[in-house]
Amino acid sequence: MAQATDLVERREHKRFHLSNRALVVLRPYYTKLGRVVDVSAGGLSFTYLESNQASQESFELDVLSEDFTAHVREIPFEVVSERDEKKAPFGAGSTTMKRCGVKFSYLTEIQRSLLKSFIEDHTIPDA
Q: Strands (DSSP E) along the chain, which ranges?
């Protein structure tokens, strides 16, 4: 069994944690709204509450800062991971919190630039 120290980082881009909250909304059906956990030039991860609503396939996402000073629109993506995070003890039973990791695909130069600015302005600097 591999230990945590034996794991090799496979990500192409460095991940950054946010200094303030940021939200993700999946397009075009707006069926998922989540909170960004971390972000990189190549993708992000977010948590969301699983709903009983029928899932609609999404192709793009928007990222926006909590204070609405940054908004990167219509980012094409593919899901690379999704897992149960924990059970949330509210509602008429327990609701599952999920964590989803996505990889950005086919970004325009404008989207790359906006994403770079978002990372510079809304993440915790390296120590």
A: 16-17, 22-27, 33-39, 43-49, 60-65, 71-88, 95-104
